[in-house]
Structure formats: C-alpha cells, structure tokens
Amino acid sequence: MGFFQHKDAYKALQFPEFRAYVTGNTLFTIALLIQEVVLAYEIYKITHNPLALGLIGLAEAVPFISLVLFGGHFADNRDKKKIMQVTLSLIIASSVFLLYSSTQLQSADQDFHIYSIYAVIFIIGLSKGFFSPAASSLNPFLVPKEVFANAATWNSSFWQLGSILGPGVAGFLYAYAGLSGSLITVIALLLGVMFCIFQIENRPVPVKTVHHESIWHSLREGIAYVFKTKIILYSISLDLFSVLFGGVIAILPVFAEDILKVGAEGLGILRAAPSVGAVVTMVTLVYFPPLKHAWRNLILAIAGFGLATFVFGLSTNFWLSVTALFFTGAFDSISVVIRQTVLRFYTPDEMRGRVSSVNGVFVSTSNEMGAFESGVAAKFFGTVPSVLIGAGVTMVLVSLVAITSKELFDLKVDEKVSE
C-alpha cells in the first residue's frame, strides 16, 4: 500500500494553490511542446537535415545552461512568483514575434524564417533559465511537507498529461491549421498559464537565506551541496546520461518522415507515446509509490528505458515503435518520481532554488544537449545506428553506476518521507 493509504491519494489536489500550479504547469507544457513539435517539423521539411533538428536543442540549451544557476540564486533571494510572471511575458512576446514572422516574412525570406525560429528558441531558453528554478522551488511551499510525495506524483502526472496532449495536438494542428494556427494556440495557452500564476500567493524568502552574500558564493554553495549529497548527485546524473545518449525525441521527425513514413499526424502519435506510458505509470504510482528500495527501482527503471530505446531503434513497424516509446515513458516516469522526491526531502528550504537550478543544468544537458547529440550522431552515423549506439551506451553506464553506488541501495527514502 505504500506510506500513505489509498484514501489519501488525492490529498495534494485539495490545496487550491497547488491545483492552480499544476494546471499552469500543464498548460505551459502543452504550449511549449506544441511549439517544439511544429517548429521541428517545419525546419525538417525545409532542410531535410537531422543536424538542423539537433541545432534546435543547442539553441535552447546554451542560454538555459548559461543562466539557470543565476536563476536559482534569484529564486532563493527574490519573489518567485514575480520572476515567473516576467519571464513568461518574455516567452509570450517571442511567440507573438514568431507568429508575425511565420505569417508576414516566411514567403519573402525562407532563411530569415528559419533564423527567426532559432532566435525565438534561444529567447525561450533564456527565459526558462529563470522561470524553471522559480517554478520548481515554489512548488514545495504550496502543500504541507507530509503531502509533498503525493504532490510530486500528481505534479509529474499532470506534466506527463501535458506531454501527451501537446505533441498529440501538435501533429494535427500543423496538418490542418498550419504553423500560424499552431502558434495562435500556443499564445492562448501561455496566457492561460499567466492567469494560473496570478492565483498563487506571493511567498516570503526563507529566513535562512543570506541576502548580503555574493552571488558567486551563493552559486558555489548550491553546487557544492549537490556534489556532496550522493543520492542527489547520482540520481540526476543517471537521468542526464540516459537521456543524453538514449533519447530519441529530437530525431522523431526523421522517423516519421523518412523511416516509418507516417507524416505530421504520425509524428504527433510518436511524440505523445512516451507520455502516455508515463501517465499510465504515474496513476499506478499514486497508489504504489516506488520509494521502498528507491535506488534499486531507479537503476531498473533506467535500464528498462535503455532496452525500450534499443527496441525502438530496431523497429520498422509504426505500432511497435509507438509501443517501444510508450515503455520509454513508463520507465522514465518511475525515475522522475524518485528523483523529485529525493530533491524535495534531501534539500533544505533556503537552497531549493539553487539545487533546482543545478538539477536544471543536468536536465537541460540531457534533453536539449541530448537533442543536439542525437542530431549530430544521426548525421554522421545514420539515424538507426545512432539510436542503437545510444541505447547501448545507456545500458553500459547504468551498469557502471549500479556497481559504484552500492551504499545507496540501503538508503531508506520511504522512511525519510514518513518522518
């Protein structure tokens, strides 16, 4: 049954601010994933170059990684809600510019159209460098401590729901409404996110935060805490390397267009499949949390992710490919719940922004830099070989981590949550 009973499975959703937070987070996820999918497909249709898809990840990762540590410092020392509002406004403005570019300038200058897409992705990366640490560090303050494990599962479930709806809707939006119609939808959803943020009260800066310390001292303190706390360092490192080498999301347009030949609608299904698997698993995890023997479960989940990725690389059947992607999402969701719970219960309140920002560097490196790695590998090794090599590297790395982290198998994460 786990450390809470079935009757408490919906406890976190009883808190209005948490409901507003997860609603906004879901809309934000849907909006950015619609934009990501349609822009990737647009660029691939124009260039037919997998490296151009990899550059999308690079355009977002470079500004995000450059700023997210500073974003964590500001999240610990400033009004988190205001940071989210300002940076979200910048994302909305850049999406409006992209809509103008796609409707007014595309036919006149195709190269400018492509460059404007990369520029907007760059701006979104800059904005997320501050938005993400503020949002992540605000989340734990919206529910009591004893409810957070349940809240983390629901937050991940709603995020995965957005990850299903975003790509699924994107393929059909692009096919029937074009790039402009898709972008209008994105802007409307982002305005909905802003409304949700307004429903959350401002939170004071934790009293232990030292306002007069230098920003460099603050950043070093956050980084040092992550590296000395093995359960945090190892869990986020596992996620980094598994997705960096084993992730295939960035090159799905190549599979949809050239290998499986299913077009934009098929791309939407492929892109949504991992999140369908994640949501199904998340619903199960609400009732049966994976925190007993947490480290063992994390290792097995990452290994399963690598195996499912290998099957996807070998598949030439659309529905087998969808199934393999379904299981990548299912295994990854177990990792997400364990990792979020570890971050919540092994991080002091006054350092949440900085620790969240370090985690953000790892996540962005795995996702966006992983997208770049996927594009480069597909360009030089071929699309299918690059996926098989990446899955193999993931399996080797998770085996090495399992061997070198034996002390973490005895860590009682479930007992820590119950304290």
Q: How are the secondary structure elements laid out?
A:
Blueprint: H1 16-47, H2 50-77, H3 80-105, H4 110-138, H5 148-198, H6 215-228, H7 230-246, H8 252-259, H9 263-287, H10 294-314, H11 318-345, H12 352-381, H13 383-404, H14 413-418
InterPro entries: MFS_dom, MFS_trans_sf, TM_effector
Domain Major facilitator superfamily (MFS) profile: 12-409
Pfam families: MFS_3 (PF05977)
Please explain how this structure is put together:
With 419 residues, the protein is an all-alpha fold. Helices cover 80% and strands 0% of the residues. The protein has 14 helices and no strands. It has helices at 16-47, 50-77, 80-105, 110-138, 148-198, 215-228, 230-246, 252-259, 263-287, 294-314, 318-345, 352-381, 383-404, 413-418. Helix 2 (50-77) runs parallel beside helix 4 and helix 7 (230-246) packs antiparallel against helix 13. It is globular and about 50 Å long. The model is unreliable at 1-6 (pLDDT under 50). This is MFS transporter. Keywords: Cell membrane, Membrane, Transmembrane, Transmembrane helix, Transport.
Query: What value does the average pLDDT take?
Result: 81
Distance between the termini: 17 Å
Biggest sheet statistics? none
Rg, rounded, reads 20 Å
How helical, in percent, are the residues?
over 70%
* Strand count: 0
Low-confidence stretches: 1-6
The succession of helices and strands, N to C, reads HHHHHHHHHHHHHH
Number of helices: 14
Helix vs. strand class? mainly alpha
β-strand percent reads under 5%
Shape: globular
